[in-house]
Write a structure and sequence with these properties.
This protein has helices spanning about 1-10, 20-40, 50-60, 75-85, 90-105, 110-115, 125-130, and strands at about 45-50, 60-65, 70. The protein is mainly α.
């Protein structure tokens, strides 16, 4: 998955979550732009709107194909990846697998730590991640 290298290049797990919201937004915007280039996606916008009510209502974010916008209502790398997966055309189950696999491949130790501490909304068995291949969609 070429996207893993982009995530690793943009997200420093030692500093990203300690950065200001403004810096996190800038990092995710830059990552979004490069992911769109990688997958040949044009005319889609990315927006972070910190909104606890919409965060709860949507599970963190959404991709709106009508307005061609990806929204995050809280800064979350996993939610960001999940909504990117929808942008790429994955259904809900595939989006969960894709996002988890990208996070796991980019930051395996952090991923396992987050799984153990219950930080992820979805629970995905490692075997499912290992089997998932975005090219077989």
């Amino acid at each position: 998955m070429k996207v893993v290298e982009l995530v690793k290049r943009h997200i420093d797990p030692k500093t990203f979550w300690k950065s200001s919201i403004k810096e996190q937004k800038q990092i995710l915007q830059s990552l979004f732009t490069e992911i769109c280039k990688l997958y040949g996606i044009n005319n889609v916008k990315f927006e972070v709107r910190i909104n606890p009510i919409l965060y709860c209502a949507t599970g963190g974010g959404c991709y709106d194909p009508v307005t061609k916008r990806v929204y995050l209502f809280k800064v979350s790398l996993m939610t960001f990846l999940h909504e990117i997966a929808h942008l790429l055309g994955f259904d809900e189950e595939e989006a969960v697998l894709w996002a988890h696999k990208v996070f796991y491949c980019a930051f395996p130790k952090l991923y396992l730590k987050n799984v153990q501490s219950g930080k992820f909304f979805h629970i995905v068995p490692l075997e499912a991640l290992e089997k998932f291949d975005e090219c077989l969609k």
